[in-house]
Amino acid sequence: MPHWMTAAGVALGGDWVPERSYRIGSILVATLAVLIFAWAVAGCLGRSLGLMSGAILATMREFTAYATGPEADIFLASTVTIAGSLLLQILFNPSAKDQKATFFGGRSWAVLLFFALLGSMNAMKGPLFGLFFVLLPFGAYVAWGRNLRELRPLIWSWGWLVALMLALAWPIAAYMRYPDILELWAVDYGRAVE
């Protein structure tokens, strides 16, 4: 996915700004992450803190360095930031809470987008890598002894189905085209190939 988004920027910029066109995708996805993060914090803690949080993220040295260069890792970082922001909005924004959520019922667009991003993270940097950065802090939050009733929007069959389908799409497509990918993943995840 990062390579496709970089290629889209090159297709848009092309000969107009050849060396900078490789940065268009990175800049756009990072800008989207900053805006969604600011929106989520504003929904939970107020407009002033939302604006300040967005400004802080936008001016962080590492974030800015990755966002303004032709760097693939900003796509994963932005996807994790957006998914975490949506999770923040789902769990902590009083106006976004859905108290009547059922296992098969409908949900807000933010919940659906959260599950779609959760599943699509495999296409950002390989299987399970991005999921780790979202699910680990979320798991710690749940283990901290929070009320499980507030997790009701996330207990949704269709959302988990969307996440599973998107999560499996990239590894299956990669395996179908390059069966040797299993060896690469085995090495990446710490198992030596004999």
SSE order and pairing:
Layout lengths: L1 H12 L10 H22 L1 H13 L1 H7 L5 H20 L16 H12 L1 H4 L3 H15 L13 H21 L3 H8 L6
Helix pairs in contact: 2-3, 2-4, 2-5, 5-6, 5-8, 6-9
Strand content: under 5%
Distance between the termini: 30 Å
Helix count equals 10
Main sheet makeup: none
Radius of gyration: 18 Å
Q: What is the total tally of β strands?
A: 0
Output the structural class: mainly alpha
Task: Indicate how many domains the architecture comprises.
Answer: 1
Summed up:
With 194 residues, this protein is mainly α. The protein has helices at 2-13, 24-45, 47-59, 61-67, 73-92, 109-120, 122-125, 129-143, 157-177, 181-188. The chain has one domain (2-188).
Describe the overall structure.
The chain is mainly α. The protein has one domain. About 70% of the residues lie in helices and about 0% in strands. The protein contains ten helices and no strands. Helix 2 runs parallel beside helix 5, helix 5 packs antiparallel against helix 6 and helix 5 runs parallel beside helix 8. The model has no long low-confidence stretch (mean pLDDT about 85).
